[in-house]
UniProtKB/TrEMBL annotation:
Pfam families: LytTR. The keyword DNA-binding applies. It comes from the Bacteria. The keyword Glycoprotein does not apply. Keywords: DNA-binding. One of its GO terms (molecular function) is DNA binding. Residues 129-231 form the HTH LytTR-type domain. Residues 3-118 form the Response regulatory domain. This is LytTR family transcriptional regulator DNA-binding domain-containing protein. PROSITE patterns: HTH_LYTTR (PS50930), RESPONSE_REGULATORY (PS50110). InterPro entries: CheY-like_superfamily, LytR-like, LytTR_DNA-bd_dom, Sig_transdc_resp-reg_receiver.
Length: 241
């Protein structure tokens, strides 16, 4: 998950940025200027990955502000400048801003900046997931998970060694945090596509290696099924009959 902060006074600009980034589930807005009158305190407390900063209206000297906070932030953070003119472009580049957006900014401007950020800072693949229950912490290797099944407000993890482990969180919670090889194929199931060895459209079922039961999929998640088939087909020799 990438956290971002918006230091801006115009609510229309704030809403535009938040609307565009809502298309990127890995980005999470942790605040806006009007919520936090002391942005430096908020930044040092929350350590955002991406900061949108208006150079014209928010701070008396935004470049001194950036120089001040950069000594405390982690190495892979970025600032994106927002301004109504190009006059501050040189100072922004010199200070180390990642990108420069001219007002009135467009959805396309924001999207390009976010995609450029993603390219420079790809998400690290997390191979471990922590299941916490009170003072009990259990760590699972995601490569060993066959599939997840919803059970009311809990989720059961089916492992490749035959064990089943329960977690007291909803399936939706894990859908947002698991690596990309995990796909939601049903309101009650997420599968690890690396274990899928058959997809049957006739019965609306998948079969998995090291698993005796069939996993149902629904038409609601047919796009995920088709994406999975396309990915698996690229690494397979196709035999037609």
């Amino acid at each position: 998950m990438k956290n971002y902060l918006i230091i801006e006074t115009e609510e229309t600009v704030i809403n535009k940025i938040k609307e565009v980034l809502s298309d990127f589930p890995e980005f999470n807005c942790i605040g806006c200027t009007y919520d936090h009158p002391e942005p430096i305190e908020f930044i040092l407390k929350n350590m955002p990955d991406l900061i949108f900063l208006n150079l014209d209206t928010v701070l008396h000297n935004p470049f001194n502000f950036v120089n001040e906070v950069e000594q405390y932030l982690k190495k892979d953070y970025e600032f994106i400048a927002i301004s109504s003119s190009k006059e501050k472009t040189y100072d922004a580049i010199k200070t180390g801003f990642f990108d420069y957006l001219l007002n009135p900014i467009t959805d396309l401007d924001i999207r390009k900046a976010v995609l450029k950020f993603k390219k420079k800072h790809p998400n690290k693949i997390n191979k471990t997931i922590c299941l916490k229950s009170y003072k009990d912490y259990q760590y699972l290797n995601t490569d060993e998970i066959l599939f997840l099944k919803a059970d009311n407000n809990t989720t059961d993890f089916y492992m490749n060694n035959g064990h089943t482990i329960s977690a007291f969180k909803t399936l939706k919670t894990f859908e947002l945090t698991l690596p990309r090889n995990f796909l939601r194929i049903h309101k009650s199931y997420i599968v690890n596509k690396n274990y899928v060895n058959r997809v049957n459209y006739g019965t609306l079922n998948c079969t998995l290696k090291k698993c005796l039961k069939n996993i149902p999929f629904s038409k609601t998640y047919i796009n995920n099924i088709e994406s999975m088939i396309n990915t698996l087909s690229q690494t397979s020799v196709l035999g037609l009959s």
